[in-house]
Amino acid sequence: MVIVERQFWSGKRVLLTGQTGFKGSWLLLWLLELGAEVWGYALEAESEPNLFRQLQPELLANPSYAERFHDHQGDLADAKALSALVEQCKPQVVLHLAAQPLVRRSYADPVGTWTTNLIGSLHLLEALKPLQHSCAVVMVTTDKVYENREWLYGYREPDPLGGHDPYSASKAGAEIAIASWRASFCGSAPHQTPQLRIATARAGNVIGGGDWAVDRIVPDAIRALAAGEPIGVRNASATRPWQHVLEPLAGYLRLAEELTTSPAPPCEAFNFGPLLESNRSVGELVTTVLRHWPGSWLDQSDPNAPHEAGLLHLQIDKAHHRLGWQPRWDYATTIGRTVGWYRAVHEGASALECCLADLDAHQDPPSL
User: Fold this and answer.
1) Cα(292)–Cα(289) distance, integer angstroms
2) What is the percentage of the chain residues whose pLDDT exceeds 90?
3) pLDDT greater than 50 at residue 368
4) Contact (CB, 8 A) for 301 and 236
5) What angle do CA 68, 34, 194 make, to 5 degrees?
6) Which residues contact 205 (CB under 8 A, 6 or more apart)?
7) Does pLDDT of 216 surpass 90?
8) Separation between Cα atoms, residue 104 and residue 141, nearest integer Å
9) Which of 101, 173, 214, 323 is 20 to 30 A removed from 227 (C-alpha atoms)?
10) Angle at CA 267, nearest 5°, toward 8 and 184?
C-alpha cells in the first residue's frame, strides 16, 4: 500500500484553493506537515465553529507552519486576483478544492453554484496557462457527477455524467469543461501550453472531525448530541459511500505525485471512494455514531423535500491500479475516529492535536 511521499512534498510550492473549508483545512495541515510551502485562496470561513479557525491560531503560533503558509482571501469569480496569486506563488502543484459544496444550498442559489463550480474552475485554469514551468493540477469534483440511475453497482470513470440537482450538474459541467480545456490548451501547438498536467478527482460523502457545515448528517448529529437533543434524520434509507476525509486527500496527493513524476502522467479522471463495506444507509450511520456517543434520533423525512440521490457508490479499481492508492480505514474505524475527534474537542482537547493524531494513525504502516 502506497504512503504519501514526504520527500516529494518537502519544499514544494503548492496552490491550495478552498483552504477554509472542511477538506481544505485538513489538506492544509497535511501539506504543512509534509514540509510544503502553501498558498491558500478561498472565501472567508462560513460556519461557526469552523475547522480552519480552530486550527489557525495554533498554526500561526508554530514558526515552521507560519513561515510556509500564505493565506489569501478571494473569490473564484475574480479572475484577475487568481492570476495575480499564480504569478506570485508560481505553483509546482495546484490542488483545487474551492467550491459551493452543498446540494440543498444549490437549490436556493443555482446560478451562484454553477458560477463557482464551473466558471471558477475555468478561471483557475486560465490563470495557470502562462506558467513557464511544469505544474501538476488536481481539480476536485465529486462522486455526484455521474448520471445517477440508482444502480446497485458502483460507477466507473467512463460512465455518463449528469446531475439532477444544481450542485451535481455544476460539478458534472466542470468535469466536461476541464476535459475540454485540457484537450484544447494542453499540448505543443502555438495556442497551447506543454507545462500543465491536469487530472480530476471524484470523491464524496467525506466525514471526519471538524466538519461543521449545515445540512450534513455527521455535523448535524454532533450538534444534536452535544446539545442533548435527538438527531434529526431526513432520509434514513439513503445509501452513501462513507469515507474518512484523509482517504480522498491521500488520493489527491498521490495523484499529484504521479502527475509530476510519471513519464506518462495520468491526465484523466479518478474515483476515490471507500471499500464496498462502507456503503451504508444514513440510518446505519446514525446508529453507529450513537454507539460512540449515546443519544437518540428522530425521523424527519419530508416527502416535499428537494430531490437527493438515494443510492450511490464508486468503483475505485483505477486509482488502485494506476496510483497504488486504496482506503486504509474500514467503516468501523472511520466512524470511531470521527466521533472520537468530536468528543475529544467537545471535552476540551486541541483541534490541532486531534487532527495530528488522526494523521499519524492514518499514515502508520499496517501491521502484518
Assistant:
1) 5
2) 79
3) no
4) yes
5) 80
6) 143, 240, 241, 242, 243, 312
7) no
8) 17
9) 101
10) 130
Structural domain contains residue 217:
no
Report how far residue 81's alpha carbon sits from residue 99's, in angstroms, rounded to the nearest whole number: 17
Question: Among 220, 245, 244, 242, which residue's Cα sits nearest to residue 231?
Answer: 220
Cα distances (angstroms) measured from residue 174 to each of 54, 122, 140, 182: 31, 8, 10, 12
Residue 237 banded pLDDT, cuts 50, 70, 90: confident
Residue 247 domain-assigned? yes
Is residue 302 in some structural domain?
Answer: no
Domain total for the chain? Answer: 1
Q: Mind listing the pLDDT tens digit for each residue in 143-190?
A: 999 998 877 788 999 999 998 899 999 999 999 999 999 999 999 999
User: What CATH code is carried by the domain that includes residue 109?
Assistant: 3.40.50.720
Distance of alpha carbon 253 from alpha carbon 256, whole angstroms: 5
Residue 8 CA to its chain's centroid (Å)? 21
Q: How many helices (H) and strands (E) does the chain have?
A: 15, 13
Query: What is the bridge-based pairing of β-strands 239-241 and 279-281?
Result: antiparallel
CA distance 66 to 57: 10
Share the mean pLDDT of the chain.
92
Element (H, E) at 285: helix 282-292
The grid coordinates of residue 21 equal 473549508
Cα gap 105→223, rounded to integer Å? 19
- pLDDT higher than 70, residue 309: no
* pLDDT, tens digit, 9 for 90 and up, residues 34-44: 999 999 999 99
User: Helix, strand or coil for residue 94?
Assistant: strand
Q: Is residue 76 part of a domain?
A: yes
Report how far residue 322's alpha carbon sits from residue 303's, in angstroms, rounded to the nearest whole number: 43
Residues of the domain holding 259: 6-204+242-276+311-330
What count of residues does the chain have? 368
